[in-house]
Design goal:
Layout lengths: L3 H91 L5 H26 L5
């Protein structure tokens, strides 16, 4: 059996033990909050860093896709333009209409003839050719 002195001692020590246990629980709770806070912050930082890497990689991939699509559109545009020009040239030829080159050649010949006429006019005005 317990004697009275021992029982009194246990009762007096109880509040001290309860306070110490409560204090330890409080500190453990604060420690848990600190660890969780640090872990969450570390996890958040790691996620931000990983997100930046993914964004950079995806931006490069998307830019590459856009460049490829732009190049294809330009190529198709050139093919279409060449086909339209060839078809137009063929249709105009069938109708007997002159081509752009024919008109340019004719204009060059007219310029040469106009220059010769001016030369002849100048000579005639100076008394040559009578």
């Amino acid at each position: 059996m317990l004697n009275v002195a021992k029982m009194e001692h246990m009762v007096r020590e109880l509040p001290s033990d309860v306070v110490n246990t409560g204090r330890q629980v409080w500190l453990a709770t604060l420690g848990t909050a600190g660890v969780v806070g640090n872990t969450v912050q570390s996890l958040f930082d790691a996620l931000v860093e990983e997100g930046a890497k993914v964004q950079k990689t995806e931006r490069k991939r998307i830019n590459h896709l856009v460049d490829t699509a732009t190049d294809r559109v330009k190529w198709v545009g050139h093919v279409v333009e060449d086909n339209v020009q060839a078809t137009t040239k063929l249709a105009l030829g069938r109708l007997g209409l002159p081509s752009r080159k024919d008109v340019s050649d004719l204009m060059a010949r007219v310029d040469v003839l106009a220059a010769k006429v001016e030369t002849l006019k100048a000579r005639r005005g100076a008394g040559y050719g009578r």
